[in-house]
């Protein structure tokens, strides 16, 4: 009789133990805010353990403020993953030296997982104090009211807006409210292969060029060989929205209340883009590309001109063996150029908003951070400091680096609407149908107009 | 003792079950019901719920109506059926053939079985990237092979008609090992006496296959069919990786791909949840129909 009772007691004990383990595992995340912070500090926090470590994040950062003078700012980003990681670390060190009362905890997440993670964390109230957003997602976040209005911060700190490019700063407004600061930006320029221009006995692109000259050059380069192409420009949302403006068109009416996708100007624009593929074939079809990218085509010396961003420079400097240079992108009735920018924002519920602001202002607008970017060839800072820009211009190739700044005079920004990503994908789908010749440009844009009007809410 | 278990024993049982039940409850059952609630709202997946402020707004069956009345849903459904029509017959044929081959007693058969199973263990990401290259129009080995027999291969993944067959090829390569292993199990469960008797009667290989192997394998075939149909409706990683952004103007858009995009890219969690419930209903209906039909062709004796 003795034995079974002991066994019973034992099994009850075992069950309790199991349950306790479970409970302990569940609450583990919140037990040590202090130790947590020290453990994951620094650039190594990229990847899994960094993410877990700050699960109970935003709150513990605020709590630490009472104990010591130092506050901890949690900062999440994606563009510091890979090569730029040491540069971001360098920025952090410089910032902390200048601001001894602030400790920045950097968490770097790969682009692929970044937005799913941020979405979950914002929804559950555990978003980091400051974080990075690309333009598409910035609009969605800003319109949903989860970001902090930076204007009061600007005023309190006496921030001089003129150190930043106006268009780059304005891009991070929604409904007239400044919700973000540009971390970096990259604009799109015309990059060309000098060798192919020489072989085709065509003169190099200049700032005076329009679609006409660009097309003529493309045709003569295409004539050089069966597998040599004149130009490559994606037939997708960003390129189309910009080209439409070059042709005097636009995607939305002036007060942004209705789509104007299938206007004659826009149809003409798409016709021009499609003809280059289907008719003159100066631009390769999807089949001719057969899965390789246009950068590779350019690097292989088989492409005369490519419209792409300045983020191609590090790659081209390293891997292009022929002489190449850049020019401001040609327009048609007017010039229009486009840029991509990643913004820095502050979580609306952050308890250390002031310190978080100092950190993003440092990353965005300080001379030190800009210099680190330029020296490390990490995109382009959105700043106007002449000596920093001087240093940027001094780097060759390309010789005509000035074109990067000349392009800024013609910047246009995409429409700021809440369902930006959805609009982008939907329009791209229809543009691709036209690019492949499955639909006429008129038909494709009519369909796009109809679908966008049905799906996208415009206020 | 019947019905009146001691409280301590009940407690023990309860506590032992608790760890796994808690996981099931927290990570499956609650989210399932929660997703249904979300599907009735316009929640964007970012804002905290605040009933007083009307966030998110209640839409009733609005999301469902919107999905079912839009062209996109039907296009995606058509894509999925295109996939199923190609995938199911091919995977059945290939995995039975592989199973019959692997059922022989050759020397080193273990090695062959492992070889067939390797794709199953490969991650979809790696597999998709390999297939992307295999199917490249100009540099891909598949078109290279076709050119030997004088066929100019299509630009597989860039062509709206051929993108889905390209995806199907990759899926068959990936899944064949798994299903042939299951079929192999079925084959080895067939009593060899039947084959002996048939051989004595002078039945041909084909006759033995259709009169003995297929009927006796039918329970396994049934299981494989069910799994295949469910998997087909859940088509996702190969589409995301092989055809970036769901292919030439949406030719490879699939249900799960849409759900993912709506939930995490377009910030329409309510809409995405409705989409998943519609997907659930479709899979449920197909499975019930298959169970009904099994009486006509599945033999549970042998």
TrEMBL record, chain A:
<protein>
    <submittedName>
        <fullName>Sugar ABC transporter substrate-binding protein</fullName>
    </submittedName>
</protein>
<dbReference type="Pfam" id="PF01547">
    <property type="entry name" value="SBP_bac_1"/>
</dbReference>
<dbReference type="GO" id="GO:1901982">
    <property type="term" value="F:maltose binding"/>
</dbReference>
<feature type="region of interest" description="Disordered">
    <location>
        <begin position="35"/>
        <end position="65"/>
    </location>
</feature>
<comment type="similarity">
    <text>Belongs to the bacterial solute-binding protein 1 family.</text>
</comment>
<feature type="signal peptide">
    <location>
        <begin position="1"/>
        <end position="24"/>
    </location>
</feature>
<keyword id="KW-0732">Signal</keyword>
<dbReference type="InterPro" id="IPR006059">
    <property type="entry name" value="SBP"/>
</dbReference>
<feature type="compositionally biased region" description="Gly residues">
    <location>
        <begin position="36"/>
        <end position="65"/>
    </location>
</feature>
<dbReference type="GO" id="GO:0055052">
    <property type="term" value="C:ATP-binding cassette (ABC) transporter complex, substrate-binding subunit-containing"/>
</dbReference>
<keyword id="KW-0813">Transport</keyword>
<dbReference type="GO" id="GO:0042956">
    <property type="term" value="P:maltodextrin transmembrane transport"/>
</dbReference>
<dbReference type="GO" id="GO:0015768">
    <property type="term" value="P:maltose transport"/>
</dbReference>
